[in-house]
Amino acid sequence: NAEGAASERFTTIEANYIEIRELTAEIPDDERPTVLWNAISPFSDTWGIPGAETSAGQLILDAGGNIAIGNEDSPESVAFVSLEVVYEGALAADIWITNLFNVTTIEDLLAIDARYEDFDAVQNGNVWNNDNDVNENGGNNYYELGVVNPALVLTDLTAIFHPELLPEHEFNFFRPMTSAEADE
After folding, report:
1. Which residues face 175 on adjacent strands?
2. Which residue has the higher pLDDT, 98 or 46?
3. Residue 135 main-chain phi, psi, to 5 deg
4. How far apart are CA 59 and CA 181, in angstroms?
5. In this structure, are residues 73 and 57 in contact, taking their beta carbons and an 8 Å threshold?
């Protein structure tokens, strides 16, 4: 018998999402960063790239970004993409959202594949991971709270893509990946 409370909560989350989405609605295409959003499979050398009609793709678009490789012409996720395809299509991406478990530094990322150093986002220090809120047992709140409150995810992404729009934002789920030396 909590339908009223659930409906109220949903309405609040929806309103917050729409408010943040409206911040980026008028950003021209040439001011939207190209975003590489991926899930590198830990079991093979394949990548999953979101399409425009996936939740990740919609978040990128609503946060004022453009999807590297995928776009409005590829509405669904592209699974099992090789590094060569990603290298060719996303080498110049402005931002890289890695979404990788147990990869906390740029060195960790480069240990997976040294060719990642060639990516513009790595060279420009604009690589992010979704592990800003992980508990002592490895539980990642991005996959808990972020799933039920996409407005929080959208706010983080908007602050990453367009920091001038949310200069005081404290990140919920994402953090910049830095060098281990810089963390000391």
Report:
1. 129
2. 98
3. -85, 180
4. 32
5. no
Which of 82, 94, 157 lies closest to 127 in space, CA to CA?
A: 94
pTM above 0.85, yes or no: yes
Could you tell me which of 153, 94, 119 has the C-alpha nearest to residue 40?
Answer: 119
Tell me whether residue 85 is exposed, middle or buried, using C-beta atoms within 10 angstroms of its C-beta: 0 to 12, 13 to 18, 19 or more: middle
Higher pLDDT, 183 or 135: 135
Angle separating helix axes 150-161 and 3-24, nearest 10 degrees: 10
Out of 26-35, 78-87, 98-107, 152-161, which region has the weakest mean confidence (pLDDT)?
78-87
From CA 6, how far away is CA 131, in angstroms rounded?
A: 27
Beta strands 34-37 and 66-67: pairing type?
A: parallel
Structure tokens at 24: 């980026």
CA distance linking residue 120 with residue 153, whole number of Å: 24
DSSP 171: P
Would you place residue 49 in the very low, low, confident or very high pLDDT band (cuts 50, 70, 90)?
confident
DSSP for 77-111, written as a single string: -EEEEEHHHHHHHHTT-SEEE---TT--BHHHHHH
